[in-house]
Write a structure and sequence with these properties.
Keywords: ATP-binding, Kinase, Nucleotide-binding, Serine/threonine-protein kinase, Transferase
Organism: Cylicostephanus goldi (Nematode worm)
CATH architecture of the largest domain: Alpha-Beta Barrel
Pfam family, one: Alpha_kinase
Protein name: Alpha-type protein kinase domain-containing protein
CATH class of the largest domain: Alpha Beta
Helix content: 40-55%
Strand order of the largest sheet: 1-7-6-4
Largest sheet: 4 strands, mixed
GO molecular function, one term: ATP binding
Shape: elongated
Order of helices and strands: HEEEEHEEEEHHHHHHHHHHHEEHHHHHH
Number of strands: 10
Distance between the termini: 77 Å
Structural class: mainly alpha
Length: about 550
């Protein structure tokens, strides 16, 4: 039923071909043993075609509407979900699959953001996508060339000819808004059906009376007809200044992170005005309602084509916002690493062994997958710019040439290249430290510890960097207050050692920090107590001795 609502929403934008999804039902046979359940849906006559799947498959049959519909649901839902596995007869579809961000509902076929990544890796925007102002998903040059080669057959087909301008898609719910896209869609569908019912009733009464009204009539029935005309093209903000047949520019698309405080009142105003609509519809209220909807611009599927580097840098520092788009790019990087996007015919060559190595030990064989490392890092870098913590930490580890779990065989040489050219005046340590500091602000404990140690020693921060004890203590305090459990996986220093480091800096002073023996005494004492709790008696005695020296 949810997918059917998305089909109705797609049809409201006047695509070249309207679509529909067969509604199913479940019957419980209460008179039969064990009361079995049966799934029931209408039989569809004709040639059954599977246009795409939930794992990136695209049919060789060149149909634009099914692929555009899937892309439409992604942007219209604010990246919360996407309807895939489009199959059926003509434009009557059945048995679709919905991928959601959480990946916990709509059955086992819901692959979450991984399914979204698989779809966009094989999706090339067509004429319908462009007419809806849907944004192309960012792909690497190699991936885009592969898409062109894979879809070259469709170039011989004639382009879709539009008899009218298709309305631009706008998101029901902004990406960072906590509202449920399906709930907003249900309210919107209810509003349209209620409005259509009111108009039909008024038209019926008009026909019964047989009255004739001129163009300037402002009676209730005539105003209802005006409202109906507006509803047929609700998101055409302005038609003034354009001749018939003249190409109109697409609405400006807002890119990046949304402000919840600015978006939420608009959504509430729209929902409340829709639910509170009555049979007395006026021209002004109708226009106002649709203009409120039109102000909500879409959440595009692309990032690099519309964002400046400075804006991306600022967006990556938003610590409380999780980017769905960034998570999709991170999943694409993972898929590249495991060889998911390699052609099936080369599957046996993934772990090919040279003939000269057949006599060597099996343990020395190279078990790595020869994947597209450039494309994998391309998506990892976009995820980093979108503010995904794992991507930020991974790129920082690459910059420092530290071991990393994701894209293990990709080194810092990828970081030195941007858009196919080597970066000028690029300092690897300075770039890595900025990323580590961003990861620390996002709450990664190991990054906090790394930044604190860098401020303490003045190293690994780039050229001309100096130690800063106040900054080091600030980050050490955050690490200590992060958790009292020293058994957390990946923790580099126990809590008592961090307390001792802070005490030592207060004891020595300098590097911007005022010497304070009282604070040093208290910190050494606390470190000794924590060491005793950790069964480290010798270390505790050492800290007690340091505390006595500070008390003299």
């Amino acid at each position: 039923m949810d997918a059917k609502l998305w089909a109705e929403e797609f049809n409201r934008y006047d695509p070249p071909k309207k679509i529909d999804i067969v509604q199913m039902c479940v019957l419980e046979m209460i008179d039969m043993p064990s009361e079995p359940l049966f799934h029931l849906e209408h039989y569809i006559e004709g040639d059954y075609i599977k246009y795409n799947s939930n794992s990136g498959f695209v049919s060789d049959i060149a149909r634009k509407t099914p692929q555009a519909f899937s892309h439409f649901t992604f942007e219209r839902s604010g990246h919360q979900m996407i309807v895939v596995d489009i199959q059926g007869v003509g434009d009557l579809y059945t048995d679709p699959q919905v991928h959601t961000v959480l990946g916990t509902d709509y059955g086992d076929g819901n692959l979450g953001t991984r399914g979204m990544a698989l779809f966009f890796h094989s999706h090339k925007c067509n004429d319908i996508c462009h007419s809806l102002c849907l944004t192309e998903f960012d792909l690497s040059r190699a991936e885009y060339r592969a898409l062109i080669r894979g879809t070259s057959v469709t170039k011989a087909n004639q382009s879709t000819v539009f008899t009218r301008t298709v309305s631009a898609c706008s998101a029901l719910v902004p990406e960072l808004n906590q509202e449920d896209a399906m709930e907003c869609l249900r309210l919107r569908t209810l509003s349209f059906r209620s409005r259509a019912s009111s108009v039909d009733d008024l038209k019926l009464g008009l026909d019964l009376k047989g009255e004739v009204h001129d163009a300037d009539c402002i009676c209730e029935a005539c105003l209802a007809e005006v409202a109906s005309d507006l509803a047929s093209d609700p998101f055409d903000e302005s038609t003034e200044g354009y001749e018939v047949g003249e190409e109109r520019p697409c609405p400006v698309i807002k890119v990046g992170f949304y402000n919840q405080s600015s978006e939420r009142p608009l959504r509430s105003e729209s929902c409340s005005s829709s639910l509170g609509s009555s049979s007395r519809i006026t021209r002004d209220t109708e226009k106002e309602e649709y203009w409120v909807d039109a102000r909500r611009k879409s959440v595009p599927a692309g990032v690099l084509s519309a964002m400046e580097v400075e804006q991306l840098t600022e967006s990556s520092k938003l610590t409380q916002n999780v980017s769905i788009l960034g998570q999709i790019h991170l999943d694409m990087a993972r898929y590249h690493e495991i060889g998911r996007f390699l052609p099936e015919k080369t599957d046996e060559e993934k772990h090919a062994i040279p003939l000269s190595n057949l006599d060597t030990d099996i343990s020395s064989w190279d078990d790595s997958v020869d994947y597209d490392k450039e494309s994998a890092y391309f998506h990892l870098d976009i995820a980093r710019r979108c503010g995904v913590l794992e991507a930020v930490v991974t790129v920082a580890q690459m910059a420092y040439r530290l071991p990393h779990d994701l894209l293990k065989d990709v080194g810092d040489d990828r970081i030195l290249v941007e858009n196919g050219e080597e970066r000028e005046d690029f300092n690897r340590e300075e770039f890595g430290f900025e990323l580590m500091e961003t990861a620390a602000e996002m709450g990664d404990r190991n990054a906090m510890l790394f930044v604190a140690q860098s401020f303490e020693t003045g190293r690994r921060m780039g050229p001309n960097a100096q130690p800063s004890y106040p900054d080091a203590i600030r980050w050490y305090e955050k690490v200590v207050g992060f958790t009292d459990d020293d058994s957390v996986e990946g923790v580099l220093l126990p809590r008592y050692e961090i307390l001792a480091k802070m005490a030592q800096m207060y004891q020595e002073g300098g590097c911007g920090l005022v010497q304070n023996f009282e604070l040093a005494y208290n910190l050494y004492t606390e470190a000794a107590e924590v060491a005793i709790e950790a069964m480290k008696g010798k270390i505790a005695n050492k800290y007690y001795e340091q505390a006595e020296m500070c008390s003299r």
